[in-house]
Amino acid sequence: MIHLLAPLPYAADALEPHVDARTMTLHHDMHHAAYVKAINTVLSAAPDELKDKTPEWLMSNLSQAPLAIRAEIGHQAGGHLNHSLLWANMSPRGGGTPDGALAAAISRDFDNIETFQSKFEQAGAKHFGAGWVWLVVGPSPQLNLHILTTNEHDNPLTEGYQPLLVNDVWEHAYYLKHENRRPDYLHGWWAVVDWKAVEERFANAVSAAQNADGPRGEAAIALNAVH
Ligand code: MN
Fold this sequence. Notes:
Number of helices: 10
Strand content: 5-15%
Strand order of the largest sheet: 2-1-3
Shape: globular
Oligomer: single chain
Radius of gyration: 18 Å
Structural class: mainly alpha
Bound molecules: manganese (II) ion
């Protein structure tokens, strides 16, 4: 398959002032575009069985890539996938708080939404160097929520977690607007988080865990209820 750069799902200035238009344009049109170009280049020299795989598959199955190109696939497929996830979990109609099953799971695992948001911000602010901060579920068939950070363009799929929500803490994501104030960027960013998209990702992850293997799925839910 040829990996393609999808257009942003909103105008470059739609998330102002939390994500400024100049940062959004550079981030999508230059940074993300470069990862898309690079994953196509690295896969052109990869074994045929890797050529038709999605970024999700590649990051979930990195160990199947030849060692000589494994790190490069991780950098470039991760750069492509992580940015695609980021654009999709932001919206000019974002903000507020989650509802339904996701809200209940956040309350179960982090006490309440405010505590979750505070811990997510702290994890992102403290992450050393370039990387990403995530809300994930798993690893399957477990359905616990966790906050993780990853280095560079690593993705939690590689460790068996399903990403639900992600923010980019590379300096290119915020420095033009927020300079060295990464905590301010993380704190203001909740205003553009599309919780409906996150709820949908959670519902899909729960459904996949339950359908993968009936008895284990049921056991995972019972186990979680103990915590
Ligand atoms: Mn980025």
